[in-house]
Amino acid sequence: MDIQVSHPPMVQRAAPLIPYRTRTPEVQIRLRTLNDVTPDFLQAWHDLERDALSGHPFLSADFVIPAARSLPHLCPPVILTAERRGELLALGVFENITRSLRLPVRHLRSWQTPHTYHDGLLLRQGESGPALEAFWRYLARGHHDWHGVQFPRMPVHEELTRLLTTSSLDVEACLLQGTQWERACLNIDEQLPQTLQTAVSAKRAKSLRRGWRELEKSGSVDFRFECDPQAIPGCAEELLQLEHAGWKCDEGSSLASDPAQSTFFRNMVSLMAQRQAVYFSKISLDGQAIASVVNLRAGKTAYAFKLGWNPNFERGCPGFHLKMQTANRMAAELPGIRCIDSCSQPGSFIEHVWPHRRQFSSYTFVTSPVGQIAATMAQGLRWMKRSAAAMSRNLFHPDSNRTDE
């Protein structure tokens, strides 16, 4: 799944801000850069987030703009919208790349940052038909150099992915789907207490009880959700310190290791707090936070964006307790949220305490004849390389595929 990317300047023939008219005359496709984001457009973006069919925080203006302005070495984002009489029907944030492993010609890819865990489009509920018709016909027949579009992290069994896939058939786009993977999530429903009891092994449950008692030896232990916008900045500073205290500091990947990353995080959290789109879950010892997670909210789904904990309390397993307490108390204390995505890597410790899984895959839509030829050739070359490697293994190790009888 490695992608070879270069970031050349935007192709001038893409003609930003020149509307592309579709078969539905009132729907137009427009291209913008961050320099074209006016206060009115920003408000329209926020309104679309609120009314989106399947939104997520990584397409939020409160995430995209701080990341683009603070983080170095990112490709400049291209904002593509479907609009009708000034109303946003759809919005996507992309980057212009020359080639990828699956599509070795110029195409769009969902804008990527080191902190992106989900891709897709913002689609206004009830308007997916005309918006996607405009989107695909622009990509297939508009005046630009792009031969397709790539979404590296799309949920497999969800409505937005289904709509993108089926609507792309109208322009005979070719779909290249990558290998599926899954990550832990927590679906909040009335069956969750019973599910948790069966999902956590007796050995793990015993270890967690022992860890909690270990924490209580050091003082009064408390778990809470912090949603108060006035308290959010202080929670952000706590998390920066906790994350920097652990192994991420040693490898230089903590947010606090880089002033640009810290600036992005503070600005992003501050903007989301103004719209009550962020909350923290944390464990405190005598009032001092020893473990914290910042959760970004989009509709009924929350994303456990970053985790930090004090390594001095490692024997108490604060990270495990944070996830387990969240599972036990979420339904009662934050009833508006129906799912939490862990944003974790496969094999994460969270899988031991959160029983559900969310499947993801990369989706590459090839929208031009040139792109389809290039994609077919790339697929053929990969097959030839794999075949040659297999032949080489058999040539030098002729018994490698034999089994003893």
Description:
- This protein is of the alpha+beta class and 405 residues long.
- It folds into two domains: 202 residues, Gcn5-related N-acetyltransferase (GNAT) (Aminopeptidase); 149 residues, Aminopeptidase.
- It is built from eleven helices and 15 strands.
- The chain has a 15-stranded mixed sheet that branches.
- The longest helix is centred in the last third of the chain and has 28 residues.
- It is globular and about 65 Å long.
Largest sheet: 15 strands, mixed
Instruction: Give the overall form.
Output: globular
**What's the helical proportion of residues?**
25-40%
Q: Do you know the CATH architecture of the largest domain?
A: 3-Layer(aba) Sandwich
- Structure classification: alpha+beta
Q: What's the average pLDDT?
A: 89
Unreliable residue stretches? 1-21, 400-405
CATH class of the largest domain: Alpha Beta
The CATH fourth-level homologous superfamily of the largest domain:
Gcn5-related N-acetyltransferase (GNAT)
Beta-strand proportion: 15-25%
Number of strand elements: 15
Might you state the CATH topology name of the largest domain? Aminopeptidase
State the helix count. Answer: 11
Backbone CA Rg: 23 Å
